[in-house]
User: What shape does this take?
Amino acid sequence: MPRIKLKKLLSKLEESEVIKQIIGLIDTTIVIKDEEKVLYGEETSIISEEKYEIKAGGEIIGWVYGNKNAATIASLITYMGNSELEKKDLANETLDKYREINVLYNIPKKIASSLDLNIITGTVLYQAMKHIESSCASVILINEETGEHEVVSEFHRKPGLKTFIRSSKPIIKLDNVIIRNVILTGKAEIVNNVGEGLRKHNGGKEINSLICVPLLVKNKVIGIIVLGIDKPINYEAEDLNLLNTFALQASIAIENAKLYGSQKEAFFETVQALSDAIEIKDNYTAGHAKRVAHYSVIIGGILGLPRSELARLKLAALLHDIGKMGVSDTILLKKSRLSEEESSMMMKHVEYGSEILKNVKKLREIIPGVRGHHERYDGYGYPDALKGEDIPIIARIICVADYFDAMTTDRPYRKGYSAEFVLGDIKKGAGSLFDPDVVRALLKAINERKLI
Amino acid sequence: MAKILIVDDESHIRRLLEETLEDFEDNGVQILTAKNGTEALQVILDERPNIVYLDIMMPEMNGYDVCASVKKQYNLLDVYIVLLTAKGQEFDKKKGIEVGANLYMTKPFDPDVVVAKTSEVLGIEV
Assistant: This one.
């Protein structure tokens, strides 16, 4: 189909009255037709087969029938058609710029609001592939510790599909000379006809042209974005510029995400260290807190707690006994039965726990879980004698998980009981010591072999 | 037949919107244009377009006034009106809601969004 339809062209010319005036000037009857029908004049007015082509962009879009003067009309409309086509091209170029502007305007909003490396790199690649014709794209980051290159995100276009899918197998090989060169020099590069010459690409069969731009943070290369295409298409400077703009925004977001990630890691390592410190001081077997956290999260999952609550549950479980730091070693390590006074000192550990945590902003929200893990469902627990649903759910879960692990593991003075025996015990305590719902969730976890 | 009306006093914006929506024409949709608010209102009353892309800043009758007239005075609630505002220009959201506009977009508009919205309103895939 021609890019310009004669009918539309004529309607535009009609508006400006030009064509009518000129036809009025020349003393002849003319008929204008396209492939389908007559657009001007009457079919019956065609007296001879003499006709002149109307073209636009080299394509014939219709004919003018009539004597030699009709030729003038045909070339006039052809001229108009071509100028219309030029305008169309210009308009489409502008629309492409509009799209580009909008992408550049929207990408930072999208990726800046995310601290997830996967989302950031995914968004950037998706947009890059949408705007630069390509069959595959990767983000490769340099691991700061090992110096190794890691593909963190990769997309490819499935033949016949409009969208792109995440690849499971790497398409662009890491030991590629081009990639290594860009990482080394920090300079973006276009390589058309990759298969030829010295820089033969490992997967050369699959990729014809490549664009490779560095991800720079303070002039240091932290990785690259690669775009490749399997068709014989040459990339141009314009494509490179666009990809560079994407890379610029991606670098900042990636750096932020990495910083956030390392902060988060540091936080969890600190929590872990604290948790280990309690175990060293206490006579519990190693790994108690970790197991309680593991059991708690599984039970919480069965009870349908939201993700944010599960994260709090995990932290609270890891640190549930942190208050034992405040209990003297003579009581903590005593193997015989504690006196009433010693017992009440020991019971203080839940309160010490909340004291310790209240000054750590990021841990303040887990206090209810730590403080409440010795409350009883029937209201006879400590320290606040809360009852039933008044006890925070994470505390009710940790209570059961703590008891289960304490009883099933070996102690210096006794062997651990079997899971069946302990479960029987816990079942008996449902409704008095423990929340019956939590007990049911524990039984379900064990029956479905989720726990051990 | 479904109809789209494009209203802007600047010819290049009309042209760009026409070009953006060109594929709808191949699906039997008629694209109409108007150069100012007064003309736009006349076309809306005569032709009852399904969707109108309406520039706000126009001489004579501005976009808000056209929209208010269509929605309030003539009660043509099924004419879907998209107000167009230039980037950087203050868009009065409250006023947009007051006059009954269905949506507003900033220029330079995203052609893909315009096509998607039109598709949705007309129920025609292109």
Q: What stands out?
A: The first strand of chain B starts at residue 3 and ends at 7.
